[in-house]
Specification:
With 213 residues, the chain is of the alpha/beta class. The chain has helices at 2-24, 31-34, 40-44, 125-138, 153-165, 181-190, 198-210; strands at residues 48-55, 58-67, 74-78, 102-107, 146-151, 171-175. The chain has a six-stranded mixed β-sheet with strand order 1-2-4-3-5-6, covered by helices on one side. The chain is globular and about 60 Å long.
């Protein structure tokens, strides 16, 4: 009887562990394979990869760091700034792995961990959009699994990318960014300003008039 009970308990434990692995990685990727990048050099580099980016001013490299292994969900994080860097987005390391998502921290060109060229002709929205497309290709993402999450300036970049390459993404997440700065400015003047302390608003208007930003 003890042998039978022991066998049953072992079977239940094995089944539970296998189900836990599936639930943590979306059902297809076992936990044991989540950090298996298929490339030993990537593992030794802690998932970090410098991706070459071609521009009109030459070729440069941008920093990326991969977490997880899920061919169904690849999320690229677009930080604010521009040039702020990815560090404040490391908070995603606290909960994305629990869901089994494959995600990429990424410093755009000009940000601290990537190359920082001095050619000012590179700082255009169109050029940044092209950079994101090159990163997408480099990480092997496509319309079946590619999600873009942009915060602040990264939200603008994410929207602009989606407008040009909507056939290349499966999902778009915009965090803390308006779709139109002129429209938001109008809303701030006509709606938000009326809720402020008149003295504070007068001081802000005075600063704006002097262009003392």
């Amino acid at each position: 009887m003890r042998i039978i009970l022991s066998s049953i308990l072992i079977s239940i434990l094995f089944f539970s562990c296998s189900q836990l692995e599936k639930s943590q990685t979306g059902g297809n990727t076992p936990v044991a394979a989540y950090f298996n990048y298929g490339d030993t050099s990537a593992v030794q580099a802690a998932g970090i990869r410098m991706i070459p980016i071609k521009t009109t001013a030459g070729e440069f490299k941008v920093w990326t760091k991969r977490f997880g292994n899920n061919p169904r969900i690849k999320i690229l994080l677009l930080h604010g700034g521009p040039a702020t860097g990815h560090e404040y987005m490391e908070c995603f390391e606290s909960f994305f792995p629990q869901q089994g998502f494959e995600f990429y921290e990424y410093d755009q060109l000009g940000a601290p961990y990537s190359d920082q060229p001095s050619d000012s002709s590179l700082w255009t929205v169109a050029r940044y959009v092209d950079e994101v497309e090159q990163v997408r290709k480099a990480i092997g993402a496509d319309r079946r699994n590619f999600y873009v999450l942009g915060n602040s300036w990264g939200g603008i970049l994410a929207m602009e990318y989606a407008l040009k390459y909507q056939d290349h993404i499966k999902g778009l997440i915009v965090a803390d960014m308006v779709a139109s700065c002129p429209e938001y400015g109008k809303y701030a003047n006509e709606v938000l300003s009326k809720t402020m302390d008149p003295k504070v608003l007068a001081e802000l208007r005075d600063i704006e008039a002097k262009k003392d930003f």
